[in-house]
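Project standup — Tuesday

K.O.: blocked on the structure for the chain from last sprint. Re-posting the sequence here as requested.
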Amino acid sequence: MDNQENKSKRASVDGKASTAYETVSSTALEEPFVQRFPSIPGEGTALPNDENDYCRAKAYLMKQCMETGDSLWDHLNEVLKKILIEQPVNIGDTFEEFSYRVRQNRFKDKADHLRDIYVPPEHHALSLKLMGLLRPSDDTSDAQDKPHDDEEEPRARPDLMELLYFFEQTGVGLPRQEMFCIALHLKKLAASQPIEKYRFWGKVLGLEKNYYIVETELNEDETARRNAEREEAEELAKTEDSGAETRTRDELKEQRERELEEAKQREIDFAAERSQAKYQELVRQAQEAGQSQMPEPVELAPWPPIPPLPLPPIPAPIRKIPSEPSGIGVNKKTYFVCTEPGDQWVELPDVTPEQIQVSRKIRRAFTGNLDSPMNTYPAFPGTEKNYLRAQIARISSGTQISPLGFYTFNEEEEAEPEEEGALKTNYTENPDYEPVSIKDLTDPSMSFWVHHTPYILKQGRTTWWNPTENEAEGEEEEEGEGAPEEEEQKEIGPELLTPLSEDAALDSITPWSTRSTSVLFPEFAIATVRSNLWPGAYAFAAAKKFENVYIGNGHKFSATNHSPEPFGEIQDEYPTGPEIMEILDPTPAEEEEWRLAHEVRAPEEELPEEEELDDEELDDQD
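H.V.: unblocked you, prediction finished:
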């Protein structure tokens, strides 16, 4: 009975406590803690229950605030944890400060989206560049006023968007937005430079940035001016080189004479020292012999001076292969590059034969920085700017093609007498050109496609230069030179407008591949050609239109991994001869014999005089 009464009382107390807990509101937070929890010991007649009291107290402390979503339980845990970690002194005095710090760090927004200074987004700079391209120039308004001239040569100012359409049919090209910006940028370039023709050459991919390349032809006045400046610079450099060579010879002769005089003076000084030493030796001997009269000073003749080393042979000046002038050969076209549409166009310098020769022996990825140094072996003479120009010349020579009959040689050039072995270099568009059928253009024999860019010889030029010819008039050859060098055999490359069928294969790989863009609609198909030796070089032909483009990394195909050129043979420091060969050391007997033979003896006349003096002294004593 007693147990049942206790249970009923406890149930009634629990019911009252739960009712009191549920009715607790935010306005009752200020009431005494004990009054709102009647089940806590010491309140009324409720029986003590530790577990129940703990759960009710914890539930109250874990109640979240309506504004911040935080609870006193979590806040106290963080405060106590911070206190235990830092273990400050006089925590009773600084408890409120710790509580404030924890609350500030908990509710502070760590993602501060407000910056101290304004940082423009990345696309802002690009937008500013493109705004400059979209502004119409003066020639745009003038062109709108002029009537359209159908007779104007279409290849002088090509429509890049139209060419992009044809390349898109072949599966090659750039995004339209990018190509549109390039077309605007090309128009700005043509308005600011003395350019007669231009076309989009292609895009070379780099590690950091890419290169957009434009091929241009300067007008005749600009080409003549550059060639005149080049000739003046070459004459000045030639004069400086000849003067430096003359100065070198004179300096070597003066050095030889100076060394000979110094050697003679050294022998004279050494002879004086030897004479003094010999005289002291004679004086010592006379003193030991008890002689009263001292010997006369001895003057030894100086030894002949050691001849100076022979003058080193003056190396013959290295005759570098001259580069072709502007407007001719590999420098017929001028190239401009930029890394992004809207950037400043940078003109690439003319390429030299040495740069082309070395570029064939190395393989280096482009970085996108024109001033990047070329750390290669063999050493490349220039920076990445020159290397890019050399690769452009090689790619253009091997991949720029056109349909058979599109170009023809000038009649004026054919009428002029040609040198033996000379090749035709000037050609023009054929006004009577009849388009080649798609079937012929896609023929695997490649007989209906021709090269219209000159072939680059091993010298790095399109025309052969004879290295054995005399240089300037009035230059005399020195006597004592060896036999004249044998004349090198003249190298002649294939003629212009040579069919692609005559191209040689590389490692059993056909140099070209061709196909049609559509088999189902042959009347609308376009013929496309791809180079297998220079991956990234493409060409298309449709009716009377054709174009070439290159989009790649700028390197030639190689069936094997690239192997650098081996180091050259180690050169001899000096020629081997008897004057530098070791001989056997002399024996002690030979050394003594040589010493006695070269020993300087006192004059024999002095001895009788001394004897006579001794006899006279003896007579006086007697």
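K.O.: great, moving the ticket to review. The longest strand covers residues 195-204. Residues 9-37, 39-45, 476-484, 607-613 have pLDDT under 50 and may be disordered.
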